[in-house]
Automatic annotation (TrEMBL):
UniProt keyword annotation of Protein transport present: no
InterPro entries: NMT1/THI5 (IPR027939), SsuA/THI5 (IPR015168)
Protein's name according to its UniProt entry: ABC transporter substrate-binding protein
Single Gene Ontology BP annotation: thiamine biosynthetic process
Organism name: Bradyrhizobium rifense
């Protein structure tokens, strides 16, 4: 080959390299615990701001129909990650579901029994004789028996009606139920959207249920096989939460940009602002999101075993339910 031909061939090769497409982003499906509400703002904000794309992730966010159902989807690998109530995930994991939490975001429980302020239901004793609306398989229904045991209530003390998420809301809105089980930043905002009226939440956390709540979960085998992707996903999600904390209204708006029927900007913002204080405990006050402590998780497992029907063998190894190994280090 002459020098001239060699230079020409090299130039073609370099041009081909220069115009070759970059590696395609990894497609990732995140299934939420429920229909979209303010708590979910960081995921939408992270996607809208390109935070996931910067980590090489093409994120698809899917609404869920309860933490138990989302956990099943992750266990079956029909969703790559789930955002669920972690104690609900524990119930599935102890029975053999191959799932693990890769980050715990809400480290204080947002669960409550709530009714209109004018019904004057302010403490557990006031629930007696009332009608409570629940949704089978959602996270509140999983933990409700624990609340009853902690407060001395019996299921015979009140009437229960069951239905899906919207039916539960309608039951309270239309007066067919006095209370519903809901998150302080979710169902309370939906009721306010529909009626303009405030509700009063009887918070589970105020009655000794000081356990972790929502977090990211994945299939255990998926985590082992995709360690780098899991690490990138948790890095992006951590950054998304931190960015959303600084711009609550913009984060809430990203929900509506993706889903115009996802609510109203004022209550989505308010709901997200009610969520932010749940991200950290006294022990994790100075840490980045998701950095749950071993003690918090151990206490949560112990509470679930003592009051929530979790198999006692869970106490042997609380660390089997979660890992912080895929979270970004400080400042990264």
């Amino acid at each position: 080959m002459t020098m001239k031909r060699w230079i020409g061939a090299a130039s073609v090769a370099l041009m081909a390299f220069a115009v070759s497409p970059a590696r395609a982003a990894d497609k990732v499906v995140l299934m939420l615990n429920w229909y979209v509400y303010g708590e979910h703002a960081p995921f939408y904000y992270g996607k809208a701001k390109g935070i996931y794309a910067a980590e090489g992730i093409d994120l698809e966010i899917q609404e869920g129909r309860g933490s138990a159902a989302t956990t099943q989807a992750v266990a079956a690998k029909t969703a790559d990650f789930g955002y669920v109530d972690v104690p609900t995930m524990m119930r599935a994991a102890i029975k053999g579901a191959p799932v693990i939490a890769t980050g715990v975001l809400l480290q204080t429980s947002p669960m409550s029994a709530m009714g209109f302020v004018d019904k004057n239901i302010r403490k557990p004793e006031d629930i007696k004789g009332k009608t409570v609306a629940i949704t089978p398989a959602d996270s509140m229904t999983q933990i409700w028996p624990l609340f009853l045991k902690k407060t001395g209530l019996k299921e015979s003390d009140f009437t229960t009606v069951a239905g899906d998420g919207q039916t539960k809301l309608n039951a309270v809105i239309n007066g067919q139920a006095d209370l519903l089980l809901g998150y302080v930043m979710d169902q309370s905002m939906k009721i306010k959207d529909a009626t303009g009226k405030d509700v009063y939440p009887i918070k589970f956390a105020d009655y000794g249920i000081n356990m972790v709540s929502s977090g990211i979960i994945a299939n255990s085998d998926y985590v082992k096989a995709n360690a780098d992707l899991v690490r990138r996903f948790m890095s992006a999600t951590t950054k998304a939460v931190e960015a959303a904390e600084k711009e609550p209204k913009a984060a809430a708006q990203s929900i509506l940009d993706a889903n115009p029927k996802g609510g109203k900007i004022d209550t989505l913002t308010q709901g997200f602002e009610l969520t932010i204080p749940l991200y950290r405990t006294v022990e994790t006050k100075g840490k980045r999101p998701f950095q749950v402590t071993d003690q918090n998780m151990t206490d949560s497992v112990n509470l679930m075993v003592e009051y929530g029907g979790l198999d006692a063998k869970a106490k042997e190894n609380p660390k089997a339910f979660y890992t912080n190994d895929y979270l970004p280090k400080s400042g990264t």
